[in-house]
Specification:
By secondary structure, the chain is α/β, with parallel strands linked by helices. 38% of the residues lie in helices and 18% in strands. It has eleven helices and eight strands.
């Protein structure tokens, strides 16, 4: 048991640390921007980086996790593998991420993803594939089950997504997970600081910076910004688990049994307790942590080893 726990921690931290020491070089990309008309906040701007390929009919859209950005190490890794697979790639920042400071996002806000996919800059592509990590995976699944999918979206993959927001928040707010919680909240506070420099925010900046748990963040900030009666009402309203039956395109969930940030006992019950679409494939992995995996990993999909290579092969197969 202890070996399994240590294994999960190692593969959560080691890939991130490696990226901090020496980030890989990506192929040249261009700035991406699109506006979302979001009432009552008014139009908000989304930014990102896009790698066009004249020889590609498909584009991979990659969505970061909570507190992450388009430069997060796992997003960069997905872009590298997309390049090798001959795909164009869009690394999107959800609203406010990456320092643009226009607004903040929540766990079910798939309108950002839809706006990016339907932007004129993606008109040239016949097929759109979506890959989301952690909360970005949750948003991708919500989009797949939304009933408002763009017709060019052929497949969706979610890596280590929290499917039951109530359970997931209760888990990451546990004292023993303080390191991971602090890392996530650091990204959220950077985003909030940028937003506060440009427009009115739900609570004063100094109060937001003093928040220490995800639930308190959701209770004090998310509820006021998006009109939920409580944090618990927000979780019940936006969790993907009850909507798994509504998924309308081939979708893949990859979950690590030793994930220390989105633990197995928050994900498996969420899947088992709800009917799910026959289009949904769930892969449980014994090896790996939170969005970090050994380079030798195979899902049995007949592709080169490595999580991103395997998942992108699955996506392109649909």
């Amino acid at each position: 048991m202890m070996q399994r726990i240590l294994h999960g921690h190692f593969w959560t931290v080691a890939p991130w640390l490696k990226h901090q020491i020496r980030a890989p070089r990506l192929a040249p990309s261009s700035p991406f921007s699109v506006h979302v008309d979001d009432t009552p906040a008014g139009p908000v701007r989304l930014l990102g980086r896009i790698r066009h390929r004249e020889d590609a009919g498909s584009i991979l859209v990659v969505v970061h996790g909570l507190g992450g950005t388009s430069e997060s190490y796992y997003v960069v890794e997905a872009a590298l593998r997309a390049e090798r697979a001959g795909l164009a790639c869009l690394r999107i920042n959800l609203r406010g991420a990456g320092g643009d400071g226009d607004d903040i996002y929540h766990a079910g806000l798939f309108s950002d993803l839809h706006a990016a996919i339907t932007s004129p800059e993606l008109d040239r592509y016949e097929r759109v594939l979506v890959l989301g990590y952690s909360l970005g995976g949750h948003i991708a699944l919500r989009y797949a089950a939304s009933g408002s999918l763009d017709g060019r979206v052929h497949a969706v993959a979610a890596v280590c997504p929290p499917l039951d927001l109530e359970r997931a928040v209760a888990a990451i707010d546990q004292p023993e997970r303080w390191v991971y919680r602090r890392h996530v909240m650091s990204g959220l506070k950077e985003m909030y600081t940028a937003v506060a420099s440009r427009r009115a925010v739900p609570v004063p900046l100094d109060e937001a910076l003093a928040i220490r748990t995800i639930r308190e963040w959701d209770r004090r900030i998310m509820t006021r910004r998006f009109g939920y009666q409580s944090a618990e009402a927000y979780y019940a309203s936006e969790s993907a688990a009850p909507r798994l039956r509504d998924i309308a395109v081939p979708s893949l969930i990859v979950a690590a049994e030793a994930d220390p940030m989105v633990p197995l006992d928050t994900v498996r019950p969420a899947i088992e307790a709800h009917p799910r679409s026959p289009l949904l494939d769930v892969q449980w992995l014994r090896h790996g942590g939170h969005v970090g995996f050994p380079r030798t990993l195979s899902l049995g999909f007949g592709a080169a080893p490595g999580l991103e290579s395997q998942v992108i092969h699955w996506l392109t197969g649909h």
